[in-house]
Amino acid sequence: MQRIGMVANLDKPRVREVALELMDYLEGRGVRVVVSTSKAAALGCPEKGVPEKELAGADCLLALGGDGTLLRAARIVAGTATPILGVNLGHLGFLTEIELAELYPALDKLLAGDYRLEERMMLQGTVRRPDQALNCQALNDVVITKGAFSRMLRLEVYIGPAYLDTYPADGLIVSSPTGSTAYSLSAGGPLVSPELQVMILTPICPHTLYSRPLVVPGEQQIRVHVHAQGAEVMLTVDGQQGWHLENGDVITVTRAGVPTYLIRLKNNTFYSLVREKLREGGNRQYDESQAPAVDSGNNSQHPGNYPGTAGPGTAQARP
User: Where are the annotated segments for Disordered (predicted)?
Assistant: First the structure.
């Protein structure tokens, strides 16, 4: 790898410090590191800044933060084959691959080509109105939901050409298999292996007893007609982007043409992650503020001498 992009959540503890150490480490090995123009300015290295859309042209993206940072990275590279390596400096870290203490040994494996790619299905969403169409892509979910003081919505749902039902509900979640462990799970949806190419339709607080989550083939189109006269309605994408919806809007969700590729350096399976991360809600048994002190002057590849960590032999506590 000769050019690596970085997406970082600088609001999280230690991310700024780790990002700067990581740049030095990679550049010392002949790898150019690029970040978005705004992040480069915030980090004090504007010369490394590029327009955010150009990050997708890197050999891979490093996402420093938590699952939310990785979701943002996935939308940046949407439609390309640029893979993402997630580094967890957040809470749950279900999507991210490595913890902070594993960062530098993991980078050595990455640069040596000792990794595999895991394919994750993306969603393509469109809001259609008589005068315009709004498009989005999501790794987790596309959600239609009412405002804080709105009455329940009536959502008319079609699967392909077939009418399914009109849900009286607070909203509706259309999720990918990756998103089955997120909002959909909290709303009563099933856990779905990311190997499957399906979409999960989960009503939010449905006002009927028979409404249940539904799993449909990925090649189908889900179409939702919004009936909400005078109500405040929102469309949210991965919980990070949002648009106000209008009465009569039609939302379609399909499988995106190009998946997201996640870099995997371990032999973890989806099932081991479910057991580990969801058993106790992902509560961490350590305080990140007590992470090992930085040794920015030592970039040796010998065990125990990685900057900012206690070396490859030190694993952070897990639930």
Answer: 282-319
Provide the β-strand partners of residue 168.
154
Q: Specify the CATH number for 3-120; select among 3.40.50.10330, 2.60.120.10, 3.30.565.10, 3.90.950.10.
A: 3.40.50.10330
151 is in an annotated binding site: yes
DSSP 104: H
Structural element, H or E, at residue 251: strand 250-255
Mean pLDDT of the chain: 87
Establish whether 68 is an annotated binding residue: yes
Per residue in 11-23, pLDDT (tens digit) is 988 899 999 999 9
Is 186 within any annotated ligand binding site?
A: yes
For residue 195, pLDDT over 90 is answered with yes
Taking only the tens place, the pLDDT of each residue in 60-93 is 999 999 999 999 999 999 999 999 999 998 777 8
- What pTM did the predictor assign? 0.85
CB 123 within 8 A of CB 116: no
pLDDT of residue 316: 33
59 is an active site residue: no
- Contact indicator for 182, 168 with CB cutoff of 8 Å: no
What six digits make up the tokens of 290? 């007590």
Q: Confirm or deny that 240 is annotated as ligand binding.
A: yes
Of 67, 131, 287, 295, catalytic: 67
CB atoms within 10 A of CB 274: 15
CB environment 34-64: b (16+ within 10 A), e (fewer): bbbeebbebbeeeebbeebeebbebebbbbb
For domain 123-257, the CATH architecture is Sandwich (2.60)
